[in-house]
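Morning!

This is the sequence you dropped in the shared folder:
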Amino acid sequence: MRRVVVWALPLAVLLVPGVASAGPSKFECVRQQGWLWAYMVAFGVGFQTSLTPCVYPMIPITLGIFGARGNVKRSRAIALAAAYVGGMGLMYATLGVVFSLIGRQFGTQLSSPYFVVPLVIFFAALAASMFGAFELNLPASLQAKLNAVGGQGFKGAFAMGIVGGLIAAPCTGPFLLGLLAYVATSHDVLRGGSMLFTYALGMGVLFFVLAMFAVSLPKSGRWMEWVKSAAGIFMLLAAIYYLAPLVPQMRALQRPEMGFLFGALGLAVVGFALGAIHLSFHGGWPERLRKGGGVALVVAGLFGAWSWYMAPKQELPWLHDEAAAFAQAKAEHKGVMIDFGATWCNPCRELEHTFADPQVYAQINDNFIPLKFDVSDDNATNDARKAKYDAGNLPAVRYLTADGKSVGKVDRVVQPAEMTTILDAAIMGVKANSAVTGGTEVCAAN
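The structure's back. Tokens below.
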């Protein structure tokens, strides 16, 4: 079992970037495969979180609560573990309900520096802790007090589950924010709460194992420093991810050329070789400088690779003036495609990849005038636009005729194959409407 824990920890940390940068769109793509699969993914992500370094300081405390190292019967230890996990579940389910209710407000907060800057500082501080600037371990006096809870029965275990979920937050941040962002956009209170409860159950697997088998923990060593360094790098990437919407120049760095990708990956490889993982900031100045340079190169390289992925391979000739777009559509006998976007809306940016698909691009360019509304800011103008076209949630794409009649819409991330089907129907609607308004009788039009 020790070997499993040792190898699972670095593996879980290596999986963090895909989840940390997921945002709501990835969870929406998962949900499209079925709610059962979505809950399974939430459970799996929770289990990954339980294997990250921030949870490690809580393990001796939970062992004390479960009595796993004493003479407590296994059945009671498992029952105490269930109460502990139930407390974690309550805390995270409450988060899920709250974010499902605030929904729209959460998304707009990601464009506010008053929300984003403290979040970026939070992730930067976590990165510093992973690199050894300070320890995440709880003070010895507090650990002693928390260990005493183990003798307080099921109520104490339940209460400590709530506290344990909060203490684990430093490593749950990137995972949790992506899931909460999805929950916020879904506006489904029941599923929001149950999804986060399932996430907490995934986190609780480790504690059930501890209660059942009193697992001997692997001793801290060089491998743990490597794990922490990897976690620190991903925390810095998370900080940059949330900072990017506030810095338009960062989006200008997005390049679709393969050379840009290879260059970015090359920087990351050099950074790893220089010592981003295996060196320490506790060594002499030469080692510290190598470590710092390596970390900087890895972060820059991985962010560059992510920027390449997010860069559309071709962009539609967007207009931003509503009146001009509809006037041009009328003159050219086309429809209008309105794309509501925001700097903080990752699903909106993923739809740009769908628009860049050659077949989708040709369908739109030949039959629609592309109009983009930037609704990043929460103001009266943007509220009026979203109300006019029934686009309360993002992503939102609306297909209309030149005289404003709706012929199709998209309210989630869709792949090119599905988008072409939606476009086929919308194009038929535009042509039918054009034929009617042009005075030609079309029996199938309605």
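Headline: The first strand starts at residue 335 and ends at 341.

More detail when I'm at my desk.
O.
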